[in-house]
Amino acid sequence: MGDYHFVYKDLEGASTQWDDIQRKLGNLPPKAPAFKPPPFTPASDDQPKDKTWIDSKTSEELEDLEDNLDDDRFLQEYRKKRLAEMQEAAKVLRFGSVIPISGSDFVREVSQAPSDVWVVVILYKEGIPECGLLMQSIEELALRYPSTKFVKIISTDCIPNYPDRNLPTLLVYNNGAVKGNYVGLHSFGRRCTPEGVALVLCQSDPVLNDGHNGNEAIIEGVRKRFIEKVVADHEEGGDDDYSSD
């Protein structure tokens, strides 16, 4: 007589011949179905591959994705566009600070500057309070308008025997020619603020440029800042004389 209790393993797991016979006779419940893992499906990125998705990637990530994405052509074209935009922005935003120069640098840095660049020159001397006050405003404007070139030079290095009583002096150049000449701090009113200096510089020409807006938008922004500054100081009870006369 055979051994009905012989244990063997099939695809459904451990069992015995006796158990199989009893199941056929209905004395045991059917065996549980064999466990089958779900079919493998690769992870999918639910985020759509649109402009926002591309903007969130770094240059290195874009290079890695370039070989794997189905829309390689779109990615390549977009990368070229982004690169061109970055190059254009780098070309426009080329300054952003007050550059110190010497007398030997003046022709190269000021007179020979590109025709599309406005150059603001401050003549100064250390130890003169008025020079320090105007320099603070000029430094702030240089940050605010990085497409305008701001340079500073010791007055006597630029013009021998230039009188200290005329300091500080602002010279405005464009295309090799003098477009403005502001002698003394009184040219910018009794208060020298970045907003007041900006308003004076833009009264006749669009001297200031931030690299993003057109001339009209820049001038309108300068006027708006000036008015907001006057109103704010007036509300604080300060001197509201901002005339440039």
UniProtKB/TrEMBL annotation:
<comment type="similarity">
    <text>Belongs to the phosducin family.</text>
</comment>
<dbReference type="InterPro" id="IPR036249">
    <property type="entry name" value="Thioredoxin-like_sf"/>
</dbReference>
<dbReference type="GO" id="GO:0006457">
    <property type="term" value="P:protein folding"/>
</dbReference>
<dbReference type="Pfam" id="PF02114">
    <property type="entry name" value="Phosducin"/>
</dbReference>
<dbReference type="InterPro" id="IPR051498">
    <property type="entry name" value="Phosducin-like_chap/apop_reg"/>
</dbReference>
<feature type="region of interest" description="Disordered">
    <location>
        <begin position="26"/>
        <end position="53"/>
    </location>
</feature>
<protein>
    <recommendedName>
        <fullName>Phosducin domain-containing protein</fullName>
    </recommendedName>
</protein>
<dbReference type="GO" id="GO:0005737">
    <property type="term" value="C:cytoplasm"/>
</dbReference>
<dbReference type="InterPro" id="IPR024253">
    <property type="entry name" value="Phosducin_thioredoxin-like_dom"/>
</dbReference>
<feature type="compositionally biased region" description="Pro residues">
    <location>
        <begin position="30"/>
        <end position="41"/>
    </location>
</feature>
<feature type="domain" description="Phosducin">
    <location>
        <begin position="51"/>
        <end position="184"/>
    </location>
</feature>
